[in-house]
Amino acid sequence: MLRFGVSSIALLALVVSACGHAPPPPAASPDDLIPVGAPAPDFIARAHDGTNVHLSDLRGHDVVLYFYPKDDTTGCTKEACSFRDSWERLQAAGVVVLGVSTQDSVSHTAFATKYKLPFPLLPDPQGEIAGKYHVPLANGLARRVTYLIDKEGRVAHVWPRVNPEGHAGEIFAALPPA
Question: How confident is the prediction for the chain on average, in pLDDT?
Answer without folding.
Answer: 86
